[in-house]
Write a structure and sequence with these properties.
Blueprint (H helix, E strand, L loop, with lengths): L7 E4 L6 E3 L4 E3 L6 E3 L5 H4 L9 H23 L5 H22 L1
Antiparallel strand pairs: 1-2, 3-4
């Protein structure tokens, strides 16, 4: 529903609705994407420095962190006593890939 006389700044990166100049909104600190404050979960989208990230940039940051953990500690994860833990990580990654692939269809 368009609001008469209100300037549209863009669309919310989460809900897709228009963001108006007088809405309470935040911007992704990386790409500048707009998001209604009511759409974000700060616990999920706020980084350790208090910056708000859009879902895309938050996912990339999480993948970068995961990559650093795996590449640094893969030898300890491959140890016999961690075999089940490593299998759990693989299973979870497979589930994430399935969710993303299904969403892209």
């Amino acid at each position: 529903m368009a609001s008469a006389g209100k300037k549209v700044l863009g669309r919310c990166a989460i809900c897709g609705r228009e963001v108006y100049e007088d809405d309470k909104y935040v911007q992704c600190s990386i790409c500048g994407a707009l998001m209604h404050e009511s759409c974000i979960d700060r616990e999920v989208l706020e980084d350790s420095e208090g910056n708000i990230l859009c879902p895309y940039d938050a996912a990339l940051a999480a993948l970068d962190w995961f990559d650093a953990v795996i590449t640094t500690y893969i030898d300890s994860l491959k140890s016999p006593e961690n075999k089940e833990k490593l299998q759990d990580i693989v299973k979870r990654l497979e589930n994430y890939i399935k969710i993303v692939e299904e969403s892209a269809e």
